[in-house]
Amino acid sequence: MSRIFVTGIGVISAIGNNLAENHLALKAGECGIADLHLFPSKYAGVLPFGEVKLTTKQLKEKLSAAEPGVTRTSLIALHAFNEAIDHAQLTAAQITASDTALIGASTVGGMCLTDELYHDANRTDQGSEYLSSYDCAAVNIYLQARAGINGIVNTINTACSSSANAIMYGARLIKSGHTRRAIVGGADSLAKFTINGFNALHILSDQACTPFDANRKGLNLGEGAAFLVLESEADANGKKIYAELTGYANNNDSFHPSSLSENGEGPFLSMKTALEKAKLLPREIDYINAHGTGTENNDEVESRAMLRLFETVPAFTSTKSNTGHTLGAAGAIEAVFSILNLTHQEIYPGLHFHFPISTTRLQPELNYRKSTLKNVMSNSFGFGGNCTSLIFSKA
Amino acid sequence: MFYIHHTSCISPQQTFAEINIDLLKDAIENKLRAAEPSYEGIPTGVLRRMGKAVRMGVGTALPLIKRITKPVNGIIIGTANGGMEDCIKFLNQIIDYDEGMLAPGNFVQSTPNAIAAQIGLLTNNRNYNITHVHRGLSFENAMMDAAMMLKEYPANSYLLGGIDEISTYNYNIEWLGGWYKKEPVSISDLYQKNSQGSIAGEGASMYIVSAEKLNALAAVDDVLILHSTNEEIITSQLKAFIDKNAKGGNIDLLLTGENGDSRLLKYYTAAEKLVDKDTSVARFKHMTGEYTTAAAFAVWLACEILSGMKIPGHLIKYKANSNFNKRILIYNNYKGLQHSFVLINKVE
Q1: pLDDT higher for B108 or B33?
Q2: Closest alpha carbon to B136 in B269, B315, B257
Q3: Quick one: pLDDT at residue B145?
Q4: pLDDT average, residue stretch B327-343
Q5: For residues B114 and B129, what is the distance between their CA atoms, to the nearest angstrom?
Q6: A-B contacts (CB, under 8 Å)
Q7: B182 has a chain A CB within 8 A of its CB
Q8: Which of A153, A225, A336, B109 could cross-link B86 (Cys pair, CB 3.0–4.6 Å)?
Q9: Which residue on chain A is closest to B116 by alpha carbon?
Q10: pLDDT tens digits for B177-223?
Q11: What band does B262 get if pLDDT is binned at 50, 70 and 90?
């Protein structure tokens, strides 16, 4: 079966509108978590969020997206998608070829338009222009139409691990010979729906999140999108290669709908199985982009799972301290960040950490440094116990 | 691709436990609601918290898991919307209570992956667990996932399913979009109306699949998915699909997703012209209504037919002379954009 190479990456998040901006912000340890400006909400000014610093109107203009019914989620998806295919130098003929797949992920879809959805769903008046824009698939169907994709198109939703699974699925499509290349990733935008949902669970912090800190108060919701172009060895030949996707695994924690088991069986299994897939030993992992949401439950459980698997836990950080938790986009955004670690041979500082958790004593990397990195792991765990780990290796 | 070993189906008709699809239940106000069983085996407290989609998904999955001796190596679910009713219940609370303090129950139940997650939780399964949500191709993508898994790990078995529910709210959104008929319609004249829109439906169909031929009910030989509104492209892709699989013998039955929507009829008519007079043509959406994972029901129906069920007259659109029912081609399309072709064979 073919090896899988990453030949293009694109990202938009609270710390930058493209790959170069995100890279600079990671190096500088910038935090994009701030006040909410996107829409009126009771929680604006009360809770901080990781907003993409472009308004929906600006995105529409920048992308010449005048189609009726296009939502913010679709726009940020298109923004990152365009950058990824541009970096991969895919031709129009390649993008529209029947052996190019598009695998995306979203958990919010068009539900960012919470008020419009309320009116349409309760049929309070005439239908809005967004009637077919609300579901998770709407984002990818928009990209499919816009780019003229003729190959396999799919959307995955495994909550906060959705786009890590989209990456894994794209790789498997290439390996099994169903497709030659796959454009994979995910997008989610901020929504009153998710803000109120996570708030009802009492896991939103009123300050910028502090992953792995003893006094962490919860997560911050963010928004963003990232896409990767995956190609088979034969097709990647001669192109700029960002990284090789060597390992991936999806396991379920099978414990609780919205929290992880004490010993982190799901996270442990997904990390372990990804290592087996990559044929690597735990000590060969040089850095982990942890799921690290900043919640009481996740960070301690993830720490415990890392301690179980690794004799010495590798350097790790959670870039959610920069971007907030971007839900369905997180797996792809953090995959792109992990690839930046590899391509630049750098470790970026984790932010807002002060004191280690007393039971696990793990400390994320706090300073920027150059480092020899061969293999990096990216973790994504979601509601429903959906755990996925990816391993990227220096090509 | 893979073999189907066990099936389970909750639909608007009598398809769960004692199967009898000779007599059909009619739609009420253009909705065909699922005939839900009493869900023995799901703890009452757990059942009460479940939304309908989760309930139907778990309710079809658990009896299958009971029937097998080895735990499945993964749970692969297709659902466009998952627990839509819970989703909008939560949304309504946000607006109605002006973002006040809300209970999180509906929010947690509303994530589409809650079905696969609940099945994993109740069966203590820590293996592969995924939810495909690609609107009208959610189940077909789940089938492709299962096929890839079984190609890579031929000794494994998987739970594969397709589930979606009618909620008041997605009904309203689709109604506003013009996808349901404005005039009341009986299922017996769904195909005769010559008007836009269909009737709403729901259901859950679940399968145990593996690469093991022995004792299999049916073989899923090929699946193709396609996005296009261009009739010619769809027809040529379907023709290529048929030609590619021609060496397997004649297609005995074409089972289509014709749904009474006058705008979509041209696609089904074109498909019917691609098969010859030895191929019977049947349709099923008068049994289920239209919904995003209706193809999962079509696969269940195909398995029943391949297992020897006499095809009820209400399914038949065109009856060929041949009495063979060994090879079934399913063609479904969702809103004229998302198309799928599935080839299912009898296991000899």
Answers
A1: B33
A2: B257
A3: 98
A4: 97
A5: 11
A6: 193
A7: no
A8: B109
A9: A384
A10: 999 999 999 999 999 988 999 999 999 999 999 999 999 999 999 99
A11: very high
pLDDT at B195: 95
Which residues contact residue B39 at a Cβ distance below 8 angstroms, ignoring those fewer than 6 apart? B47, B55, B58, B59
Closest C-alpha among B38, B39, B89, B72 to residue B146: B72
Q: Which two tokens stand for residue A108?
A: 């919010």
- Chain B interface, best mutation among A196, A202, A248, A259, by max B CB count within 10 A: A196
CA B207 to each of CA A52, B79, B131, B312, B341: distance values in angstroms, whole numbers, following the listed order:
42, 14, 15, 23, 18
CB B293 within 8 A of CB B82: no
B80, B94, B151: residue with CB nearest A193: B94
Which of A34, A356, A380 lies closest to A210, judged by CA? A356
Given pLDDT bands bounded at 50, 70 and 90, which one contains residue B17?
A: confident
Q: Which of residues 278-337 of B touch A (CB under 8 A)?
A: 337
In angstroms, how far is CA B185 from the centroid of its own chain?
A: 22
Find which of B72, B73, B113 to mutate to test the A interface (most A CBs within 10 Å of its CB): B113
Residue A314 corresponds to which tokens in the numbers above? 């590798």
Q: Which of B101, B133, B176 sits opposite A123 (nearest CB)?
A: B176
Residue A125 has pLDDT above 80, yes or no: no
Query: Tens digit of pLDDT for each residue in A343-383?
Result: 999 999 999 999 999 999 999 999 999 999 999 999 999 99
Residue A387 near residue A381, CB atoms below 8 Å: yes
- Please judge whether A165 and B130 are an interchain contact, meaning their C-beta atoms are less than 8 angstroms apart: yes
Burial of A77 (0-12, 13-18, 19+ CB in 10 A): buried
Structure token pair of residue A364: 């994320």
